[in-house]
UniProtKB/TrEMBL annotation:
Name of this protein: Divergent polysaccharide deacetylase family protein
CDD domains referenced in this protein's UniProt entry, alphabetically: CE4_DAC2
Keyword Hydrolase: no
Record's keyword terms, sorted: Signal
Annotated signal peptide: 1-26
Listed Pfam families: Polysacc_deac_2
């Protein structure tokens, strides 16, 4: 898709021009602003392929790389991502209801609390510079309260955040994280469960619509060639569309700034995001 055509397609979002800007949050050092819609992009399954991993790291601007533990190139790519200012996450393998293979470092419901937490700590230790976690698969484990409480205990002790990939409508992961005091977000859009340029484009536009309507959107993609080719073309256009891009850590920092505002200031900010806030 040529640049001009792609830009026109992304700009022609339903009602985009009529949506008002949100009021400024805070303008202190590092505080950022919520005047612009914000887009967060996570690329899952990084670590098996060095070439696909480096193509992911070459994506312009802020992204988070969710790296599989004990993968062939995971440690190398984590260090390179950190050096480039990208966010580094653990893509924690969790049991799924289809019983699909999970690879090393899997968290499964048959593990005791001590064993599950031992495995999770080893997964975290295998990835340098990790700042957060999301689930790889996990439709079974994320719908089970007790294992997710054990997961959140480890994240809390290490000062990490959690992104619920929402691989099942029955997930409790985000809810348990918030109950335990772990900063948490939820996935809004999967970009590429159909690997065609047309589908990725449609999902990306959907993410922009969510960001414009609610103030932010979190998109998850994978290091497929079709996805990376599309993102290399589309991401540089977002500045022209008035879309701010952030890592998950930076976005959560904005949330913390919002939480510190007094009640009068908070009333000035109309927040639509369904998982906005830290309370």
């Amino acid at each position: 898709m040529r640049r001009r055509r792609l830009l026109a397609s992304l700009a022609a979002l339903s009602g985009a021009a009529a949506l008002p800007a949100l009021p400024a949050l805070a303008r202190g050092a590092g505080a950022g602003s919520i005047e612009q819609p914000r887009l967060l992009l996570v690329i899952d399954d990084v670590g098996h392929s060095l070439s696909a991993g480096r193509n992911t790291l070459a994506l312009p601007g802020p992204i988070d790389c969710a790296i599989l533990p004990h993968s062939t190139h995971g440690s190398t790519l984590a260090r390179e991502a950190h050096a480039l200012g990208k966010g580094v996450m653990l893509h924690a393998p969790m049991a799924n209801s289809q019983q699909l293979a999970l690879g090393p470092g899997a968290l499964t419901p048959d593990l005791s609390r001590a064993e599950l937490q031992r495995v999770l700590r080893a997964d975290l230790d295998a990835i340098p510079h990790v700042v957060g976690v999301n689930n790889h698969m996990g439709s079974l484990l994320t719908s089970s309260r007790q294992p997710m409480e054990w997961v959140m205990e480890v994240l809390l002790e290490r000062g990490l955040w959690f992104v619920d990939s929402r691989t099942t409508a029955d997930t409790l992961a985000w809810q348990v994280a918030r109950e335990r005091g772990v900063p948490a977000l939820m996935r809004d859009v999967f970009l590429d469960h159909e690997q065609t340029p047309e589908f990725v484009h449609r999902q990306f536009r959907r993410g922009l619509q969510i960001a414009r309507e609610y103030g932010s959107a979190l998109l998850i993609g994978h290091p497929h060639r079709v996805t990376l080719d599309y993102l290399h073309a589309a991401l540089p256009l977002l500045d022209e569309l008035g879309i701010q891009r952030l890592t998950v850590s930076a976005f959560l920092g904005q949330q913390a700034d919002f939480a510190r505002l007094d009640a009068d200031d908070r009333r000035l900010i109309k927040v639509h995001r369904r998982h906005w806030g830290t309370g």
